[in-house]
């Protein structure tokens, strides 16, 4: 039975991915949240599904030991290893703040969650991924992390763009090495999604890219997971949008 771990599973895209995955009775799903016991949506899933189909695990990307503990807890839940790791949790605290006004302390926190912690998460979960049969990692990034596309997004979430460009580098460089040992890394832009995060750039989109469609989380989740599942080791490392088209790095 394929096993999945999704970070940031308590709301937004992460929760939508967990729900999408649970539709397939073959899948075993672990969803992480900072405080799963206080999340009604995860509690409801815990009641709805048996513990060998769905479990929630505590993980706060800002607190290193919770990542250590989450790796241990997941290893106990998945004795055959982890097939698919989805690094989804992320923050964007300075949506329309131009570089000139970016608060460095807030930027450091954004870098911690979006760039540094995913590196540590991968370090800690790699042994479990190596033990799994699929050996796949999806980094949920953003088109705002693309260096080539940057001129299209001036003034939109500038500090966040730095963090996602860093995440892309993590995926592209480490993914190229991991490919040699059979681990497939994909970097995916999930589209503009109707979530808390997505709602903060309404005005920018209306002004600069009014043709952009805001996706329901379920549609983005389905697309991202399809891209992840069909991704091939020989093509790693690729940067895709949720509908499978390639993005320029
Ligand atoms: P939301 O803001 O709706 O959800 C963010 C998730 O990340 C929540 O589960 C949140 O948990 C979790 N999270 C934040 N900080 C931490 C932390 N320190 N430790 C653990 N979990 C944390 O965002 P989306 O669902 O929209 O975004 C999901 C991913 O998609 C992100 O990586 C985002 O950058 C990316 N993305 C989103 C776009 C959009 O339009 N929405 C566009 C492009 C990319 P908590 O409730 O505890 O804060």
From TrEMBL:
This is Uncharacterized protein. SUPFAM superfamilies: NAD(P)-binding Rossmann-fold domains. The lineage of its organism: Eukaryota, Fungi, Dikarya, Basidiomycota, Agaricomycotina. It comes from the Eukaryota. Transmembrane segments: none annotated. PANTHER family: SHORT CHAIN DEHYDROGENASE (PTHR45458:SF1), SHORT-CHAIN DEHYDROGENASE/REDUCTASE SDR (PTHR45458). It comes from Rhodofomes roseus.
């Amino acid at each position: 039975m394929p096993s999945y771990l999704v970070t940031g599973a308590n709301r937004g895209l992460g929760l939508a991915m967990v729900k999408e995955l649970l539709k397939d009775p073959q899948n075993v799903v672990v969803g992480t949240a900072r405080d799963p016991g206080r999340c009604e949506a995860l509690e409801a899933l815990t009641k709805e599904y048996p513990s060998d189909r769905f479990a929630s695990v505590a993980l706060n990307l800002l607190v290193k030991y919770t990542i250590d503990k989450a790796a241990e807890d997941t290893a106990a839940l998945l004795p055959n290893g982890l097939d698919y790791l989805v690094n989804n949790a992320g923050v964007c605290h300075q949506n329309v703040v131009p570089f000139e006004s970016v608060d460095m302390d807030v930027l450091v926190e954004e870098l911690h969650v979006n760039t540094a912690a995913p590196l540590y998460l991968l370090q800690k979960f790699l042994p479990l991924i190596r033990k799994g049969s699929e050996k796949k990692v999806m980094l949920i990034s953003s088109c705002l992390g693309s260096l080539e596309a940057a001129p299209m997004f001036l003034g939109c979430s500038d500090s966040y763009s730095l963090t996602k460009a860093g995440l892309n580098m993590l995926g592209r460089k480490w993914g190229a090495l991991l490919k040699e040992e059979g681990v497939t890394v994909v970097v995916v832009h999930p589209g503009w999604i109707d979530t808390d995060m997505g709602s903060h750039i309404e005005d920018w989109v209306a002004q600069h890219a009014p043709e952009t469609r805001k996706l329901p989380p379920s549609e983005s989740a389905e697309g991202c997971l399809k891209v992840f599942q069909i991704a091939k080791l020989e093509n790693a490392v690729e940067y895709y949008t949720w509908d499978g088209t390639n993005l320029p790095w």
